[in-house]
Amino acid sequence: MFESVDDVTSQLDAQDYICNKNIATVVYLAEKLQKPVLVEGPAGVGKTELAKVVAKAAGRELIRLQCYEGLDEAKALYEWEYSKQLLYTQILKEKFTESMAGTTTLKEAAARVGQEDSVFFSDQFIVPRPLMKAITSEKPVLLLIDEVDKSDPEFEAFLLEILSDFQVSVPEIGTFVAKQIPLVFLTSNDAREMSDALKRRCLHLYIDFPNEELERRILEKKVPGVADRLADELVGVMHRIRKLDLKKTPSISETLDWARALLVLNATELEEGLVQDTLSIILKYEGDIRKAESELGRLIVRKAEEQQGKEAAEKPVEAPVDKAKKGVLH
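^ thats the sequence. predicted structure below, dont judge the formating
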């Protein structure tokens, strides 16, 4: 699938996913060692997207299990179609009568019925859910267990059998062993700490907020057409905002949303009024918006003063600076 770590980087780049060497190394080892990957990090840094692009690059079908509080085995593994089983029983009632013809005792009749158990306890009455689909697939797949930290600890313990042996047990039928070992990605937003048992079975990958250089590359890749000055200012502002004590720190997904919105507004630079009008795109709480406005206000004043000083040094007589039209970082 992947020939080297560099091959992972180039193939993911072809899918418009820019990754560093750490990410590429973990993906490469996961495929070679057939180990699950536990991807942790803040929301919006590209954890789920990583699994999607790896599936595309590897030519594997993506099977996704979205976790939530209260998720149980029936929703994740399989459901038994009792209504279909009952329908079969009604349809074959006459055949049962024929098969029991000649029996003289209840024990003998029960033995005759028992010989037909395979008709009523088989996989034709199973409705496969994501985990069962991944285990029984004839072709290699990528199983994404998304936001596993939102599930209950009991469900996390249930996953251990699958991640250890890639098999599932169905009491009515038996054990299903994987025909093709799936590539497994689990994502976590750190809503709760994952157990040591789960972490021991997985390769660990932590994806943090990108540095300015990487975020600039991602912005250019995902939002083509954004002006260079606007891109520089936007990334610089995002990194300043992330240093604030916020309830919800904006991630790379918010950077991309902001850039797309600014393109729609035909912006070529970040002006004070434009920033104030669009902060709600990247910040989801009013308190966070107020903190960001205060920080950016100080930044704008400082930049304006620096600009005034520079212009005063070059030209003693100069028109006042129009702050409203100055870029946030210029």
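The first strand starts at residue 37 and ends at 40.
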